Amino acid sequence: MVKRGIIPLLTGIAISLSASLIAQAENPKADVSHGRDLARANCSPCHAVTIDGASPLHQAVPFWRMTIHRDVSTIERDLLNHALPKDNVMPVFNLTPKQARDIAAWIAWVQPRAHGKRILETNCAKCHAIGATGDSPHPDAPLFRELMQFYPVDAIEEAFSHGIETTHPDMPIFKMTELQVADVIVYLQSIQSEK
Ligand code: HEC
Ligand code: HEC
Fold first, then answer.
1. What is the fold of 32-110?
2. 73 CA distance to ligand 1 middle (Å)
């Protein structure tokens, strides 16, 4: 069998990736862009409210790290019930259920795994199976949930950041930023199937 490899590519025309707000929120009833606007207006003086970056106030956890230790639904509930830590720094906001839901949906949206998933949905799902189940729409495109059986993480990181080129004419060349690579890896790790 011919060995297949991810070939890092240093030059050439590469497509840069996008993942826009148009895609659906995890909670279909929530309005993510409304949540984003609320977060920008109310939370950004202290918290980093987007997919990366440090918080202006260092004790305030960046939004993109908030679900490392807790479920996003607990954030919605705690915001609504004023049950967040009361240390006199974080103000107590009086939120309507809709506001709490939309902010929580925005916080879910900026998590690394969700960001990584959107990148693959937008750019790769047309050919590859990107989920924990299902076949690839393109018969030759490997299932992403099996990728890490064939390649170590650093080979994938290297290939994604320099641009992946395959011998297959149907596969476009993609090049990702450092943050996109990191978040795609978080997502890929979460779906790998045990063999
Ligand atoms: C004036 C600064 C400030 C503003 C404005 C602010 N926060 Fe905070 N927030 C903090 C600080 C500081 C903490 C850490 C409190 C602690 O851990 O004791 C915190 C903690 C939190 C937590 C708990 C984090 C965790 O790890 O569980 C959530 C959730 C949260 N903030 C959401 C928000 C939301 C949503 C907004 C906007 C509606 C907001 N905050 C606005 C300062 C702020
Ligand atoms: C138009 C279809 C198409 C799209 C879009 C596409 N791929 Fe592929 N991809 C393929 C095909 C077909 C192969 C199999 C190539 C081969 O066997 O040489 C492949 C192979 C791969 C491989 C394995 C490479 C190897 O040498 O074994 C990786 C990794 C990969 N794709 C990642 C991605 C990522 C990440 C995206 C989105 C950013 C993406 N692909 C988008 C069609 C596509």
1. Cytochrome Bc1 Complex; Chain D, domain 2 (1.10.760)
2. 16
Select the more confidently predicted residue: 25 or 82. 82
pLDDT at res. 142: 93
Domain boundaries, the chain: 32-110, 113-191
Give the whole-angstrom CA distance, residue 90 versus residue 122: 36
Which class would CATH give 113-191? mainly alpha
Q: What is the C-alpha to C-alpha distance for residues 64 and 181, in angstroms, rounded to an integer?
A: 15
Maximum Cα–Cα distance across the chain:
64
The residue nearest atom 20 of ligand 2, judged by CA position, is 141
- How far apart are alpha carbons 172 and 195 in whole angstroms? 29
pLDDT of residue 87: 65
Say if ligand 1 is within 6 A of residue 87 CB: yes
103 lines ligand 1 (CB under 6 A): yes
Res 25: pLDDT: 53
Name the closest-CA residue to atom 22, ligand 1: 84
Per CATH, 32-110 and 113-191 having the same topology is answered yes
